[in-house]
Amino acid sequence: MSAAETLRQAGRELVVLDRAVYDAVHATPSPTLDHALARISHAADHSRLWVSIALGMSLLGERPRRAALTGLAALGATSAIVNLAVKPVFRRERPLRLETVRTHVVTMPRSASYPSGHAASAFAFSTAVGTAVPQLDSALRALATVVAYSRVHTGVHFPGDVVAGATIGAGVGAVVHHLAEGRTLGHLAASVASGSPVPSAPASPSGPAVSLAKVTDTCSKPLWRVLFAASV
Predict the structure, then answer these.
(1) What CA–CA distance (Å, rounded) separates 188 from 171?
(2) Among candidates 208, 211, 193, 160, which has minimal Cα distance to 12?
(3) What pTM was estimated for this model as a whole?
(4) What's the pLDDT at 211?
(5) How many CA atoms lie within 13 A of 110 on its CB side?
(6) Were both Cys, which of 78, 125, 213, 227 would link to 172 (CB 3.0–4.6 Å)?
């Protein structure tokens, strides 16, 4: 078997496993959790949960305010990548949700299933903000994990959709945080390779490094609102 055939076979097996995990989740009764997870999933629609947290952080001082703006920038960038670049390419159909023991579900979105926009937004915001404010890191990542799982539990995504969305979101969140801190993508690559944080790059003689204002400039554009509305 050639390398290409091996990869294709592995891909088919992963799809089978993905659907098997989804079926196992929806064959397991959990009435106590159903209502809570449906509410959490709904709260994250259109990134309302993360925008609310950002608004709260903006009242706590300069550092939390800057972190909140970075998180919102990461949300916008992630929504653009997921909804405009990735979903149109893969066009994976949503789960049918014909046989489920769930007592509470959410409305099935009309967009493609892969990757999960909710998971991507959750991990983009939690990564960008948690890296900037370490005291919030564990709580935000835990909340992001719950939001991501809720999309599987409520039946609107396969587990693979959520894993892919979380991976994209975490990556974009890390990049946006580094740019907001005035670091270059080269600094980010060095940080990932070494496994240790890299100090901010000094401003160049011709001007300052990339500023938070530049990273968050898209917040004022109409496209920002369109991307949030499409975050599913």
Answers:
(1) 11
(2) 160
(3) 0.80
(4) 42
(5) 2
(6) 78
Give the pLDDT band of residue 106 (cuts 50, 70, 90).
confident
State the greatest distance between any 2 C-alpha atoms of the chain, in Å, as a whole number.
63
d(CA 131, CA 61): 17
pLDDT tens column, 185-232 = 555 556 555 555 544 444 333 333 334 444 444 443 444 444 444 455
Q: How many residues does the chain have?
A: 232
- Tokens representing residue 55 in the block: 């608004």
Tokens 């011709």 sit on residue: 206
Q: Residue 47: name the closest of 227, 219, 174, 180 by CA.
A: 227
CA-angle at 98, arms to 34 and 155, nearest 5° = 40
Q: Quick one: tokens of 85?
A: 């670049």
Residues 184, 177: contact at Cβ < 8 Å? no
Question: Cβ of 30: how many Cβ atoms within 10 Å?
Answer: 13
CA dihedral sign, ordered 118, 119, 120, 121: positive
User: Nearest to residue 86, comparing CAs of 142, 160, 31?
Assistant: 160
Its domain, for residue 176, covers: 3-229
Is the CA virtual torsion 115, 116, 121, 123 positive or negative? negative
Domain count, the chain: 1
Give per-residue pLDDT as tens, 35-66: 999 999 999 999 999 999 999 999 999 999 99
